[in-house]
Amino acid sequence: MEMITCSIVVQNAALVAMAILLLAFFLGFWRMVKGPSLADRVLILDMIASLVIGMIVAITAFSGETVFLNVAVMIALVSFMGTVAFAKYLKKKFYDN
Amino acid sequence: MIIEWIVAILLVSGSLFMLIAAIGVVRFPDLYMRMHAATKAASFGILLMLLGVSIYLPIFNVIFEALMVLVFIFMTAPISSHMIGRVAHLLQVPLWEKTSIDELAGASERERTKKSKPSPDTKK
Protein backbone atom coordinates (compact mmCIF):
# COMPACT_ATOMS: atom_id res chain seq x y z
CA MET A 1 0.00 0.00 0.00
CA GLU A 2 1.55 3.19 -1.12
CA MET A 3 0.94 6.49 0.50
CA ILE A 4 0.16 9.29 -1.93
CA THR A 5 0.98 12.61 -0.41
CA CYS A 6 -0.54 15.80 -1.73
CA SER A 7 0.41 19.20 -0.49
CA ILE A 8 -0.86 22.45 -1.92
CA VAL A 9 2.51 24.19 -1.66
CA VAL A 10 4.39 21.53 -3.56
CA GLN A 11 1.64 21.23 -6.17
CA ASN A 12 1.74 24.95 -6.89
CA ALA A 13 5.53 24.89 -6.98
CA ALA A 14 5.39 22.02 -9.46
CA LEU A 15 3.00 24.00 -11.64
CA VAL A 16 5.33 27.00 -11.57
CA ALA A 17 8.27 24.75 -12.40
CA MET A 18 6.36 23.27 -15.32
CA ALA A 19 5.58 26.75 -16.65
CA ILE A 20 9.23 27.79 -16.40
CA LEU A 21 10.33 24.59 -18.12
CA LEU A 22 7.82 25.19 -20.90
CA LEU A 23 9.27 28.66 -21.43
CA ALA A 24 12.76 27.17 -21.53
CA PHE A 25 11.52 24.57 -24.00
CA PHE A 26 10.24 27.25 -26.36
CA LEU A 27 13.50 29.19 -26.11
CA GLY A 28 15.47 26.06 -26.96
CA PHE A 29 13.08 25.26 -29.77
CA TRP A 30 13.65 28.68 -31.25
CA ARG A 31 17.38 28.08 -31.25
CA MET A 32 16.82 24.66 -32.78
CA VAL A 33 14.86 26.17 -35.66
CA LYS A 34 17.36 28.98 -36.14
CA GLY A 35 20.55 27.07 -35.33
CA PRO A 36 23.25 27.61 -37.94
CA SER A 37 24.73 24.13 -37.97
CA LEU A 38 23.59 20.58 -37.41
CA ALA A 39 25.74 20.29 -34.28
CA ASP A 40 23.70 23.11 -32.71
CA ARG A 41 20.52 21.18 -33.31
CA VAL A 42 21.93 18.00 -31.82
CA LEU A 43 23.05 19.97 -28.77
CA ILE A 44 19.59 21.48 -28.37
CA LEU A 45 18.02 18.04 -28.66
CA ASP A 46 20.21 16.93 -25.78
CA MET A 47 19.14 19.94 -23.72
CA ILE A 48 15.47 19.38 -24.56
CA ALA A 49 15.77 15.81 -23.27
CA SER A 50 17.05 17.31 -20.01
CA LEU A 51 14.07 19.68 -19.96
CA VAL A 52 11.67 16.79 -20.48
CA ILE A 53 13.28 14.92 -17.59
CA GLY A 54 12.75 18.01 -15.43
CA MET A 55 9.14 18.19 -16.55
CA ILE A 56 8.57 14.56 -15.62
CA VAL A 57 10.09 15.20 -12.20
CA ALA A 58 7.68 18.12 -11.78
CA ILE A 59 4.76 15.86 -12.77
CA THR A 60 5.93 13.33 -10.19
CA ALA A 61 5.93 16.00 -7.49
CA PHE A 62 2.54 17.27 -8.67
CA SER A 63 0.70 13.96 -8.67
CA GLY A 64 2.59 12.03 -6.01
CA GLU A 65 2.75 9.01 -8.32
CA THR A 66 6.22 7.53 -8.24
CA VAL A 67 5.76 5.57 -11.48
CA PHE A 68 6.66 8.54 -13.65
CA LEU A 69 10.30 8.41 -12.58
CA ASN A 70 10.75 5.27 -14.68
CA VAL A 71 10.07 7.44 -17.71
CA ALA A 72 12.80 9.82 -16.57
CA VAL A 73 15.32 6.96 -16.37
CA MET A 74 14.38 5.78 -19.86
CA ILE A 75 14.67 9.25 -21.37
CA ALA A 76 18.08 9.73 -19.74
CA LEU A 77 19.29 6.54 -21.42
CA VAL A 78 17.73 7.06 -24.83
CA SER A 79 18.80 10.68 -25.20
CA PHE A 80 22.43 9.72 -24.61
CA MET A 81 22.17 7.03 -27.27
CA GLY A 82 20.63 9.50 -29.70
CA THR A 83 23.36 12.06 -29.14
CA VAL A 84 26.11 9.50 -29.61
CA ALA A 85 24.46 8.26 -32.80
CA PHE A 86 24.28 11.81 -34.18
CA ALA A 87 27.92 12.42 -33.32
CA LYS A 88 28.96 9.19 -35.04
CA TYR A 89 26.94 10.19 -38.10
CA LEU A 90 28.58 13.61 -38.26
CA LYS A 91 32.02 12.06 -37.88
CA LYS A 92 31.27 9.63 -40.67
CA LYS A 93 30.18 12.54 -42.82
CA PHE A 94 33.52 14.19 -42.10
CA TYR A 95 35.55 11.13 -43.05
CA ASP A 96 33.56 10.43 -46.18
CA ASN A 97 34.12 13.63 -48.08
CA MET B 1 5.41 22.06 6.68
CA ILE B 2 8.96 23.35 6.45
CA ILE B 3 9.85 20.34 4.30
CA GLU B 4 7.17 21.29 1.80
CA TRP B 5 8.62 24.77 1.45
CA ILE B 6 12.11 23.34 0.99
CA VAL B 7 10.80 21.04 -1.72
CA ALA B 8 8.99 23.91 -3.43
CA ILE B 9 12.12 26.07 -3.41
CA LEU B 10 14.21 23.20 -4.78
CA LEU B 11 11.75 22.52 -7.61
CA VAL B 12 11.43 26.13 -8.67
CA SER B 13 15.14 26.87 -8.43
CA GLY B 14 16.00 23.77 -10.45
CA SER B 15 13.64 24.82 -13.20
CA LEU B 16 15.09 28.33 -13.04
CA PHE B 17 18.54 26.86 -13.66
CA MET B 18 17.16 25.13 -16.74
CA LEU B 19 15.63 28.41 -17.87
CA ILE B 20 19.06 30.00 -17.48
CA ALA B 21 20.47 27.20 -19.64
CA ALA B 22 17.88 27.92 -22.34
CA ILE B 23 18.55 31.66 -22.20
CA GLY B 24 22.26 30.97 -22.55
CA VAL B 25 21.58 28.71 -25.53
CA VAL B 26 19.62 31.47 -27.21
CA ARG B 27 21.97 34.32 -26.38
CA PHE B 28 25.49 32.95 -26.76
CA PRO B 29 27.12 33.61 -30.12
CA ASP B 30 28.99 30.37 -30.62
CA LEU B 31 28.34 26.62 -30.64
CA TYR B 32 31.00 25.98 -28.01
CA MET B 33 29.65 28.61 -25.62
CA ARG B 34 26.14 27.25 -26.16
CA MET B 35 27.46 23.83 -25.22
CA HIS B 36 28.91 25.33 -22.05
CA ALA B 37 25.50 26.73 -21.12
CA ALA B 38 23.34 23.79 -22.13
CA THR B 39 25.28 20.96 -20.54
CA LYS B 40 26.22 22.27 -17.12
CA ALA B 41 23.24 24.37 -16.13
CA ALA B 42 20.70 21.78 -17.29
CA SER B 43 22.51 19.01 -15.37
CA PHE B 44 22.53 21.09 -12.22
CA GLY B 45 18.85 21.92 -12.61
CA ILE B 46 18.03 18.22 -12.87
CA LEU B 47 20.07 17.61 -9.72
CA LEU B 48 18.07 20.19 -7.78
CA MET B 49 14.69 18.94 -9.00
CA LEU B 50 15.49 15.30 -8.26
CA LEU B 51 16.75 16.30 -4.81
CA GLY B 52 13.43 18.01 -4.19
CA VAL B 53 11.40 14.98 -5.23
CA SER B 54 13.59 12.69 -3.13
CA ILE B 55 12.97 14.84 -0.08
CA TYR B 56 9.25 15.06 -0.82
CA LEU B 57 8.63 11.33 -1.32
CA PRO B 58 11.28 9.56 0.77
CA ILE B 59 10.57 6.04 -0.49
CA PHE B 60 13.32 3.66 -1.54
CA ASN B 61 12.00 3.53 -5.12
CA VAL B 62 12.11 7.25 -5.61
CA ILE B 63 15.55 7.74 -4.15
CA PHE B 64 17.01 4.86 -6.11
CA GLU B 65 15.56 6.04 -9.40
CA ALA B 66 16.61 9.61 -8.74
CA LEU B 67 20.14 8.38 -8.11
CA MET B 68 20.00 6.38 -11.35
CA VAL B 69 18.92 9.41 -13.37
CA LEU B 70 21.62 11.51 -11.71
CA VAL B 71 24.36 8.98 -12.42
CA PHE B 72 23.28 8.67 -16.04
CA ILE B 73 23.07 12.40 -16.56
CA PHE B 74 26.35 13.21 -14.86
CA MET B 75 28.18 10.41 -16.65
CA THR B 76 26.75 10.92 -20.10
CA ALA B 77 26.37 14.69 -20.43
CA PRO B 78 30.15 15.37 -20.50
CA ILE B 79 30.73 12.47 -22.89
CA SER B 80 28.05 13.54 -25.35
CA SER B 81 29.01 17.20 -25.28
CA HIS B 82 32.65 16.27 -25.77
CA MET B 83 31.73 14.19 -28.82
CA ILE B 84 29.60 16.97 -30.29
CA GLY B 85 32.34 19.54 -29.71
CA ARG B 86 35.01 17.35 -31.26
CA VAL B 87 32.91 16.60 -34.33
CA ALA B 88 31.84 20.22 -34.70
CA HIS B 89 35.45 21.33 -34.61
CA LEU B 90 36.34 18.70 -37.20
CA LEU B 91 33.51 19.91 -39.43
CA GLN B 92 34.78 23.49 -38.94
CA VAL B 93 31.75 25.00 -37.33
CA PRO B 94 32.79 28.65 -37.14
CA LEU B 95 34.05 30.07 -33.88
CA TRP B 96 33.09 33.45 -32.50
CA GLU B 97 35.04 36.20 -34.21
CA LYS B 98 36.44 37.44 -30.90
CA THR B 99 37.84 34.05 -29.87
CA SER B 100 41.36 34.72 -28.66
CA ILE B 101 42.97 31.30 -29.07
CA ASP B 102 42.05 28.08 -30.86
CA GLU B 103 44.49 25.41 -29.80
CA LEU B 104 43.06 22.86 -32.21
CA ALA B 105 43.46 25.10 -35.24
CA GLY B 106 44.42 23.00 -38.22
CA ALA B 107 43.39 19.72 -36.65
CA SER B 108 40.74 19.27 -39.32
CA GLU B 109 43.30 19.43 -42.12
CA ARG B 110 45.61 17.09 -40.24
CA GLU B 111 42.80 14.58 -39.92
CA ARG B 112 41.99 14.99 -43.60
CA THR B 113 45.56 14.40 -44.76
CA LYS B 114 45.81 11.07 -42.98
CA LYS B 115 42.55 10.00 -44.57
CA SER B 116 44.27 7.27 -46.55
CA LYS B 117 44.03 5.05 -43.51
CA PRO B 118 40.56 3.64 -42.92
CA SER B 119 38.43 5.84 -40.72
CA PRO B 120 38.01 4.78 -37.08
CA ASP B 121 34.34 4.02 -37.57
CA THR B 122 34.76 1.54 -40.35
CA LYS B 123 37.68 -0.22 -38.69
CA LYS B 124 35.65 -2.30 -36.30
Question: How do the helices and strands line up, and which of them pair or pack?
Answer:
The complex is a heterodimer of chains A (97) and B (124).
Chain A: H1 8-34, H2 38-63, H3 68-96
Helix pairs in contact in A: 1-2, 2-3
Chain B: H1 2-27, H2 31-56, H3 60-90, H4 107-113, H5 120-123
Overall morphology of chain A: elongated
Counted by DSSP, the helix tally of chain A is 3
| Tally of helical segments of chain B | 5
Q: Which spans of chain B of ≥5 residues are poorly predicted at pLDDT below 50?
A: none
Mean pLDDT across residues of chain A: 89
Count of domains of chain A: 1
User: Care to count the β-strands of chain A?
Assistant: 0
Q: How many domain modules of chain B?
A: 1
Helix-strand category of chain A: mainly alpha
Helicity range of chain B? over 70%
Q: Give the oligomeric state.
A: heterodimer
What is the CA-CA span between the terminal residues of chain A?
61 Å
Mean pLDDT of chain B: 87
Helix-strand makeup class of chain B: mainly alpha
- How do the SSEs of chain A run, as a string of H and E? HHH
**Greatest contact pair?**
A-B, 58 and 59 residues
3D structure, described in words:
- The complex is a heterodimer of chains A (97) and B (124).
- Chain A has 97 residues and is mainly alpha-helical.
- Chain A has one domain (8-96).
- Chain A has helices at 8-34, 38-63, 68-96.
- In chain A, helix 1 (8-34) runs antiparallel to helix 2 and helix 2 runs antiparallel to helix 3.
- The longest helix of chain A is centred in the C-terminal third of the chain and has 29 residues, at 68-96.
- Chain A is elongated.
- The model of chain A has no long low-confidence stretch (mean pLDDT 89).
- Chain B has 124 residues and is mainly alpha-helical.
- Chain B has one domain (2-94, 104-117).
- In chain B, helix 2 (31-56) runs antiparallel to helix 3 (60-90).
- The longest helix of chain B is centred in the middle third of the chain and has 31 residues, at 60-90.
- Chain B is elongated, with a radius of gyration of 20 Å.
- Chains A and B meet through helix 1, helix 2 and helix 3 of A and helix 1, helix 2 and helix 3 of B.
